Amino acid sequence: MPTILPTTRHELGLLWSARPAMAGLLLAGHAVAGPAVRRVPGIGWVTADPVVARAVLQDHRSFTILGEGGVGDLWTQILGDWVPDLFDGPGHHDLRSRSRELFTEASSAALVADAWGSTLADAGDAIRAGDAVDVARLARVLVGRMMVSLLGLPAPEGAGDPWPDDNSALAAFATGERLATVALGTAGSTRLSPAQIATARGIVEELTAGVPEGWKSAPPDRLLGRCRELGLGLQETTGLASLLMVAGTETSASAMMRTTALLVDTGEQHRLLARLREHAPDRDAVHLGAPAASSGSPLAGSLPAGSLPAGSLLPGEADPIENVVREGLRVTSPASVIGRGVAQDVEIGGAHLRAGERIMLLVWSANAAAGPFRADRPYVRETRQLWFGAGRHLCLGAALARAEIAALLRTLWSDGEPLRVVRRRAQRRVLIPSYVELLVARERRQS
Ligand code: HEM
């Protein structure tokens, strides 16, 4: 039986600050018993059932990402009439087949190491020195750097060297955030006003200004060069770039800061540290992965093969950090709802849906039902990885997102010391719940 409060009060506070009405819907989805699919006035059909949600995402005939209710509807209005093919038609299939190898486990690890290495090293040093680190800012800087690096955003005139500096990375992140904010208020309808469309187009142009040049001349080991080598045209590459920015910025930053807070707030950091200690290659070593090059990078799994903790890890998960990444994604579910238009009359979860209606999948509620945050929670079969969606639109950047979250957690808990939250502030009126500020520091100062 789910309890009324499925997660920490800080997490609930974040949901509430971001979108109070949505928070209410998500909590109701979690707490209210009744039919798996029901109608909510002003919203349409909703479900918090993970099995039904997955069935909707996998039934591409009956449900569409393009129609009213789906995110493709927003993109079509913003980017133009070529979007439907790229989003859901044969062009989408082609795009997905070609882009499959953009974000593999290996390429994601390399992207993270390349774009984040020095910033994470500095953050690790600060934590070890006993300083407080603002993980909310850090996550934005990191994700902003990733955007700049992925999209090859050109350095503006007079920009400092090395490019980007923290402020430029924060500016890139803020621009992506502004774009996502256009979607605020589309819970009831995905139709945008002409003013919203004009704003969104301006932001996309700003963000993708460097794409034509990058697509033409970036080396094949950069994303834009890779797109060209994979045979993606400039229009497809620009579309993909815009998509990456919106899909992969606030979501990742949100998961990074919230998983950090959850580990502290639930006390599960102690379980994580114990697991890491138990399975560390050298039991006397307190340094579990960072900082020195000699003890391995915080960007990579710190445990040698053969010393893996048994039980809750999935095949391919290198260590207990990855278990925590999976659990953090489940409990935070940054993309807390996924919308679809109903393309043809269909019966699902005992309800009869008519073509032209919309359904909202309460992904957060579906995932939260498995129970509170636990650092060693095993795989949950019902939800699988619903936080990344399912079916043909399953998150393209899932491996990158996991690598990003893992890299941050490894940095923060690298030396085996528990952390505390010094100060925090929730962000108001945003699509994806997050902190404006999340200051963390070691629980005790080093002697
Ligand atoms: C914690 C971080 C992330 C979460 C929770 C997340 C979640 C999701 C979800 C739920 C979808 C499916 C949307 C739908 O079906 O309507 C999706 C799609 C997508 N995501 Fe992510 N995402 C994350 C990070 C990223 C990153 C880092 C990137 C790339 C840089 C990315 C790129 C994409 C793209 C391109 C799609 C569209 C795929 C398609 O339509 O075929 N995401 N994501």
Largest sheet: 5 strands, mixed
CA-based gyration radius: 21 Å
Terminal CA distance: 46 Å
Count of domain modules: 1
Q: How are the strands of the largest sheet arranged?
A: 1-2-8-5-3
Number of strands: 10
Secondary-structure element pattern, one letter each: HHEEHEHHHHEHHHHHHHHHEEEEHHEE
Q: Give the oligomeric state.
A: single chain
Can you tell me the CATH topology? Cytochrome p450
> CATH superfamily membership, which one?
Cytochrome P450
Q: What amount of the residues lies in strands? A: 5-15%
Q: What class do helices, strands and sheet pairing give? A: alpha+beta
Shape designation: globular
Hetero groups: protoporphyrin IX containing FE
Q: Write down the CATH class.
A: Mainly Alpha
Low-confidence stretches: 282-309
What is the CATH architecture descriptor?
A: Orthogonal Bundle
Write structural notes for this entry.
The protein is α+β, with helices and mostly antiparallel strands and 447 residues long. It has one domain (9-442): Cytochrome P450 (Cytochrome p450). It contains 18 helices and 10 strands. It has helices spanning 9-18, 20-31, 50-58, 71-79, 83-88, 90-99, 105-128, 135-151, 166-181, 194-207, 211-217, 223-229, 234-248, 250-265, 268-278, 320-332, 363-368, 398-412; strands at 37-40, 44-47, 63-64, 133-134, 337-342, 346-348, 351-353, 358-362, 419-426, 435-442. It has a 5-stranded mixed β-sheet. A hairpin with a 3-residue loop joins strand 1 (37-40) and strand 2 (44-47). Helix 1 packs across helix 2, helix 8 runs antiparallel to helix 14 (250-265) and helix 14 crosses helix 16. The longest helix is centred in the N-terminal third of the chain and has 24 residues, at 105-128. The chain is globular. It starts with 8 loop residues before the first helix and ends in a 5-residue tail after the last strand. Residues 282-309 have low confidence and may be disordered. The structure holds protoporphyrin IX containing FE.
